[in-house]
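Question (not urgent): is this output format expected?
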Amino acid sequence: MKTALCPRTHLLFCFFYITTLFTSQVYGEWFFRGTPNNWDATQMTMLDANNYEIIQEFNGEEGNARFKIDRNGDWAESYPSQDYIIEDFKTYRINFNTISKEITVREFNDKWYFRGTPNAWNTAEMTHVGGDTYEYTATFNGQESPARFLIDHFGDFSERYPATDFHVTDFKTYKITFNAATKAITADEVWTPDTWYFRGTPNAWNTAEMTRVSANTYEYVATFNGEESPARFLIDHFGDFSERYPAVNDQLVTDDRIYKITFNSDTKAITTEEIGVIEPWYFRGTPNNWNTAAMTHTGNGFYEYTATFNGEESPARFLIDRYGDFSERYPIPDYEVTDNKTYRIIFDVVTKDITVTELGATSGDFREETIYFVMTTRFYDGDSANNMKCWDGSLNPNTDPAWRGDFKGLIEKLDYIKALGFSAIWITPVVKNASGYDYHGYHAIDHTKVDFRYESPGVTYQTLIDEVHARGMKIIQDIVLNHSCNFGEENLYPMFTRSETISFNEDPDVAMTINDVMGVLPNDYLTLVPNAQFGARIDAMKEDFNDTEFIYHHEKSLQWEGYTVQTAQIAGDTVDLNTENPTTAQYLIDAYNGFIDMGVDAFRVDTVKHISRLSFNNYYLPAFKARGGSDFFIFGEIASRYRQVWNSGIPAISTPFYTWAETQSYPWGTRVENEASTFQHWQDNDTVDNEPTSNNHLLFGNDYHAPDHSLNSGMAQIDFPMHWNFQYANDAFNVALGGDQWYNDATYNVTYVDSHDYAPDGAPENQRFAQPQDSWAENLSLMFTFRGIPCLYYGSEIEFKKGHVIDVGPNAPLENTGRAYFGSHIEGSINVTDFGEYSNVTGEMANTLNHPLAQHIRRLNLIRRAIPALQKGQYSTEGVSGSMAFKRRFTDGSTDSFALIAVSSGATFNGIPNGTYVDAITGDVQNVGGGSLTANVNGKGNLKVYVLNGPGKIGVDGTYLKP
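Got this back:
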């Protein structure tokens, strides 16, 4: 604690303080102040009477890395007189002697790892807490018996402590402390607070974890809005109704109210405090001539209204009116906004806060972006109250339910993604799902609604979209047009009327409307086990309905390389939608146009090869482009796991095929016509003999030319051929060189190494990329400089779950797969000023961002953003020697960007324009007068990017990008 010098009321203490000040000076407090902590005062650790210590990371926060040691943190006495300057981007152990004022600086790079049963014996870096002490907190949950661990120095078991494992009691949490000098290990049990759940009509009786506010007090805020009558709830201890309060009858409350519910775990007393009323609230302002417009209640006391201000009155302004008579209004005075804009206005009925977000369609060339891909439920948990287990996910422990990450967590870590330099985020599907293992989002039961398990009070999908845009970033929504969940799509049963009922001889009292049966079965995510007659009747009704309208495909024989790949189910829990049926198509178009209206910037389309290109070109692509604008980016997934561009020589299931518009007319209108035409279309494209080619990706010599997109379908593709060859960068590069002519424009391809589904060919058991780290670096160096839009699957920046099988369904805990929870690696805070530019990073996030690959990616993003040729340029290898070397150029009315790129090894570029070329990696300058330049590259994954009249060196040297 810092003590003020000589307060009048503490004279005796002052005498003691002054006496020691002029003798040993051991009681003074000393602080580190420098570039890493923005010159704030950070208290140093007292080692003994005369020595203090701190460990600090310097990460380029200012131009020169430097610091001072400051007594009392007030600049009254600091050392040295001039700042202590050191080399940046390193970690140091800094010692200060209070007698001699000597400062000793030693580079610090020691790390110790926890390995044990909780983390499957993988390496988890311990936290250095000062001196020789390291800490780690681990929860043992019966992963392996007996529960035990060890401390590993180098991550290879060559130096480990103790020699035999350290045993602890299972199903407990421990703070583990390790002394690197004495090798002493202590494990102190950490008390874990009990868990209590709210269950009631507002959340369909699912479990919502209450917030612990004291040793025995828990709270939850719930909005009762007519979901079920009467409005009621209970408090559940274990989430299984085995211990619940009240013990028998539910706790009744008044509907259309917001309550703060408090529970005492000792006395079991429940109290309810009304904190808001759900009633009409009105928007009134200049756009509607101050008339009343009812706002939409979006849940938990939040109301929403979208208004466009078009100069009706100056200044543009509005208010929120409770009764429509101005007797209670917020705010006073009016809320002013900028005119000629559209805003989303959110009102909190409890706090009376008003949030205003500007809306507007984004545009631009998506090749200017780079993409970070997350599985939302596995990324970061911002709200544990919406965590849920899947009914087929019994192997996942309660501490890691499959539904774990959420929109709130993703919002909290958007700045982390921006710090890496990524400008676009691809998220897995957000729509309402229902299946035994649906955490991934690809099993829709309702394409029009957002699944509530992603959302939190005050945090909706719209909130996420707005937060992404507020950071100058774009959001890509993953959509599935091909199939629904194994229950079907709950909005595609329109034939039965509410008056029609069914009854059963076994139980004459059972009578249900067809709508009830079709709706209730999946709506509440229940597993119902009806009697045999009930089940048979439901199945028969579904079949009768399907035979009537053909909403679904009913092909029973799936040929992976035949036409039925587009008309049969690809899995038992994915009912195939008849995407040729006009009714089905219009429903899907309307559903996803709604998300475009919310501000989504792009679609990634799942399972594209299972839908005819004719359906895309006649239905879906024109509709989405009409709604989102010509720049609305759409790219698809053609899972053609094949080493060459053509999948088994069949264009209709190959990646380039879907980038082309139709050149032949086919009958189109009714379901029967459409189905016949898609079959004919398949037969007309069963060989590569008549497939078109393009030079839209190629330079003409050294010259950029305007691409011809007249036959572009409007849908780019994930570059599956490159992905499948990315075990080695050279293979991926060569398949592109040989196959890019078949795409309408390969510069729009989205490129990645691995994903949530697949690793490159050659990886045993389809593991997350498991080659050495320099192979990762080499792949990334190629991806970020070659044609296409780079995409990174979450965690690859630290080789997260390297070598783990990506997806085994519910047959192993998610923690042991490539879809593990990433949140523990990004705990902490950060200040981000621009893409790839940040400071003041704390916690485990700092370690993650300091990983060699993370820094490599960050710098590649900085380089790509600064050089238009690397974003949108055409390329050529003409006159270029070298195994992975090429030239790129992009030219428009205001830009002419020309770059020479060599990856991992040297290259010579002949026949290039004369001029001054500057390397973005080293800043090296070469003045070319004879049309030739030689680039010398030192090391796998390293680069040279010589730019004609270039900006110079971009970023700082790292493990892979360096002289």
